[in-house]
Design brief:
By secondary structure, the chain is mostly beta strands. The protein has one domain: Sandwich (Jelly Rolls), CATH 2.60.120.1440. 8% of the residues lie in helices and 39% in strands. It has a 17-stranded mixed β-sheet that branches. β13 and β14 form a beta hairpin. The longest helix has 9 residues.
Length: 278
Amino acid sequence: MNMIKKIAFTSVFVLVLLLSTQFSYAQDDEGIGVVSAYEGSVQVTRGVNTLNAAQGMEVLLGDVFDTAEESGVKIVFIDDTLVALGEDTSFEITEFVFNPDERRSVSNLTKGKMRSLINKFKGATSSVEYKTSNAVAGVKGTQLYIDADDEIFAVREGEVFVRGIIPGAREYRLDANQFTRIVNGNPLPPQLLTDDIWDEFQSKTDFPEQLLDLFSFFENYFPGSDVPPSVRGFTSNTDDNIPGGAFPTTPPVDLTPGAGVENVAPEVPVVIDIPGLN
């Protein structure tokens, strides 16, 4: 896929909607996000129906996104979480809860690659999980990349707990600029995530896109409401054409370490083979 590494990652923050509506457990017919951009062939399986993704399309709990070769899609959720899926990727939203006191979501990445930005949550409880066939990543506020095919988990900002799903599997905390790979059902000790490696990862989920007119988008979806000041873009370079410019890099919320987490990697060299980089 001809991808652009420095591309705007559009965000729409629906604060007014959240303040005027009581959110709890999302029902299958309740909107939990929208498609902000897509490229190529992206299909959405919704119950017994298969739909073609479109910009501005409402996202529902239980939706399964499947991207073809040279295709991708970007999704903005109502908690201001952003997800970008690369080509040949399958992504399913299995659980979603969002209200002023609690945020919880679970999604399955059964194949392919994704990048996600999970914003800081001010409520009492926050839990966001992404699962692959061999591991699960628990996050609360971070920017991360996951490759389900090569079982790579990388963290650019914030903290993520990665554990294998086999009985007795290890769990590691990945801090900013660290990554790991799942081998034989266990994560390897965290390694340094260099700028070159991150750029390589990021390029697999970026694609040329026509940005949404955020103000028109908000007015169309929430007529009669004031556009919140936090409507903004996420880009590697400040862009005066995007409301709010670059996305703020605020620290994540405090994380409670998981049971048995090993926070410090042992002082031994570990080489992780990354396809296409070695």
